[in-house]
Amino acid sequence: xxxxxxxxxxxxxxxxxxxxxxxxxxxxxxxxxxxxxxxxxxxxxxxxxxxxxxxxxxxxxxxxxxxxxxxxxxxxxxxxxxxxxxxxxxxxxxxxxxxxxxxxxxxxxxxxxxxxxxxxxxxxxxxxxxxxxxxxxxxxxxxxxxxxxxxxxxxxxxxxxxxxxxxxxxxxxxxxxxxxxxxxxxxxxxxxxxxxxxxxxxxxxxxxxxxxxxxxxxxxxxxxxxxxxxxxxxxxxxxxxxxxxxxxxxxxxxxxxxxxxxxxxxxxxxxxxxxxxxxxxxxxxxxxxxxxxxxxxx
Length: 298
Ligand code: AKB
Fold this sequence. Notes:
- This protein has helices at 2-9, 37-46, 60-65, 67-87, 122-141, 167-177, 196-208, 229-236, 251-258, 266-272, 280-296; strands at residues 15-18, 28-31, 51-53, 92-98, 145-150, 152-154, 180-183, 191-195, 220-221, 225-227, 244-247.
- By secondary structure, it is of the alpha/beta class.
- It has a single domain (32-296), classed as NAD(P)-binding Rossmann-like Domain (Rossmann fold, 3-Layer(aba) Sandwich), CATH 3.40.50.
- It has a 4-stranded parallel beta sheet, with helices on both faces.
- Helix 4 (67-87) packs parallel to helix 5.
- The chain is globular and about 55 Å long.
- The mean pLDDT is 96.
- The structure holds 2-amino-3-ketobutyric acid.
C-alpha cells in the first residue's frame, strides 16, 4: 500500500506508521500506537495529513483468541481516527472493513451490498459497528470517510497476520519450500479473496473518486476471486505437479463457515468504476513465481 502511494504521490508526500521500529518503508516514517490519541494527533498535525488511511486492526482468527484486545484496537483505533479527522479537518479518511461483517441470514453467494449484518466473529462485530460509525460521522459532521469490505487479501510481500484467509498465502510458501501443506480449513471452504495489487488499486481508486460518486458511506462490497483450498491447490499443481495438501480444519473453519462464498460488488462497479484484474490463474502465477524468487534469493 505504502509503495503504491509513494509511486503515485512521491515519497516526501507519504508518511507510514507502525507500532514497531521502521521496518523499511519507502517514505517518511513515524513510530506510532494508533490507540495513543495525542501521538496520532501530533503526527497528523506535523505532516499536515490530507488523506488518512487507518489500516491497523486485529484480524478474525487472532480476534477470537483475544476478543477484548480486538475490540479495543479495532474500535478505539477507529474512533480516535474519526474524532481527529473532524477536529483537524482531514480531507478524507479510509476505514478497512471486511467480508466478516456478514454472518447469519444472508445468501452465501453474491451476498448483496445491503444484506443484514449479523457477524459471528468479534472481528466482524467490530467491523460492522465501525462501518456504522463511519456513516454516522459522514452524516453528522460531513466527514468524507470511505471504506471497503475487503475479501481475504493475498500478497507475497507481507506475511499474513492472524486472519482466517491466511491459508491462501501460507499455501504458496509451503508449496515452494516443501511441496506439501497442512490446511486449517476444509477442502471445499470457498471464500472471497483478492490479489494484493487489485486490493491496493481499489483502495486508491476509491480514495481518489470524486465525493459525489461515493453513494455508500458504510462500506462497499469488494469482490475479487472466490476459490476453495482444493481449487487453489489444483492451480498450484500446474506450477508444481507433486504438490500435496492434507486437511486438518480447526476453529478457523467455524469462522469461514459463517462468511459468504462470494459477494456482489456491483455498487462499487457502478459508483466509482471498480473492476478486478486478477483471476485465479494470474494470481497463482504471480504468487508462486514471486515467492520462488524471494526464497531462492534468501
Ligand atoms: C481475515 O481473514 O480475518 C481477513 C478478512 C477476510 O478480513 N483477511
